[in-house]
Amino acid sequence: MAEKSTLVLVTGAGGFIGGSLVASLRARGHQRIRAVDIKPFEAWYQRFDDVENLSLDLNLKENCERAAEGAGNIYNLAANMGGMGFIEHNKALCMLSVLINTHMLQAAVKYGARRFFYSSSACVYNGDKQTSFEATSLKEEDAYPALAEDGYGWEKLFSERMCRHFREDYGLYTRVARFHNVYGPWGTWYGGREKAPAAICRKVIEAKISGKHEIGIWGPGNQERSFMYIDDCIKGVDLIMNSGILEPINLGSSEAVTINQLVDMAEDIAGIKLKRNYDLTAPKGVNGRNSDNTLIQKYLYWEPDTSLRAGLEKTYRWIHDQYLARERGEAGVVREPVADAR
Ligand code: NAD
Q: Do 179 and 230 meet the contact criterion of CB atoms below 8 Å apart?
């Protein structure tokens, strides 16, 4: 475990998972945290005054060096990403995140960082293993032979390999987790980069408030996925960062549901039933994907275990509040949470 006085760098800290990680590090008593994101401060989802906040473009090597200088532990979460709609239409942009990881790894070596965490994705898995609508539980070895999600997934797979070789060749302590669909409060919920749970909550809220009891669903609705609640993600990141696990490992829930079942849950939370309009031309991703958690159970005796129903309820309530705040003309997300559990 890192000493509480070690300087910890979180990149992508203005985003969903990075912001939640900073909040959690603070709550656990870390005294020196550097938070970096390309976005201007007012667009960060969570920001804390007692943290060193930097707005830097980490595509640039000199900015990665500024960010890494003095940092003992580095959590590299910065990337250009979004839901299927975003990654299908921005493949080049997604691949350019390779610059961030390349320069961050080089900077970590240059400044002698002790540990380096990289957030990979289930999008690295071979597409041929995800053609069935009954979700395949993907084991870590299923990333090869490689046939990753075009653009975003290939960048993640390549960056995973770089982490491995920086460990082997330069002795950098790299740890890699493959996140499977993370959701929860403080996540992107509108604007085009949101993922399925947030998009569905928002659409259900919209339908309820407008009285137009219909919902548009991307794809046929029987695509299967698993969704990991943010608190499980943050706990898993911490456990993996401090573990001896050398190879990329799944970090995801193994509770697979269809998109229709996800909509059922959101409707149930809202207390309404909606007419479903399926858009078969919209991006829908692979047909079925689940996280095989054999390895994480073996190493950590743990796996993400928040039920989708419990996590979705909290997420729905949070988006509902944000939605109403936006309707009142206030900020779409609360940018500066009051000092929390510290
Ligand atoms: P996010 O979009 O909310 O956060 C990513 C942050 O990186 C953003 O705030 C963005 O501004 C920042 N960023 C992008 N380019 C940058 C640059 N050049 N310099 C500095 N900052 C830059 O996404 P998230 O959901 O918090 O994802 C965090 C990480 O987890 C990403 O690497 C993502 O690929 C990975 N991941 C997320 C999920 C998920 O379901 N959310 C699933 C798999 C993997």
A: no
pLDDT tens-place string over residues 77-112: 999 988 788 888 999 999 999 999 999 999 999 999
Atom of ligand 1 nearest to the CA of 19: 26
- Measured CA to CA, the distance from residue 140 to residue 250 in angstroms comes to 7
Write down all domains in the chain, each with its CATH number in brackets: 2-183+227-254+290-306 (3.40.50.720)
- CB 181 within 8 Å of CB 122: yes
Q: Does the C-beta of 38 come closer than 6 Å to ligand 1?
A: yes
Amino acid at position 317, single letter: R
What tokens does 140 get? 């870590």
Closest ligand 1 atom to residue 78 Cα is 7
Q: Which tens digits make up the pLDDT trace of 288-341?
A: 899 999 999 999 999 999 999 999 999 999 999 999 999 998 865 544 443 333
Dihedral pair phi/psi, residue 85, rounded to 5°: -60, -40
Contacts (Cβ under 8 Å, ≥6 apart) of 169? none
What's the token pair of residue 24? 């959690």
CB proximity list for 308: less than 8 A, separation 6 or greater: 227, 229, 253, 255, 257, 262, 265
Task: Kindly state the tokens that stand for 315.
Answer: 């997420």
Which of 56, 81, 93, 241 is the best mutation target for the ligand 1 pocket, counting ligand atoms within 8 Å of the beta carbon and taking the most? 81
Residues 150-163 have pLDDT tens digits of: 999 999 999 999 99
Helix axes 230-241, 16-27, angle to 10 degrees: 70
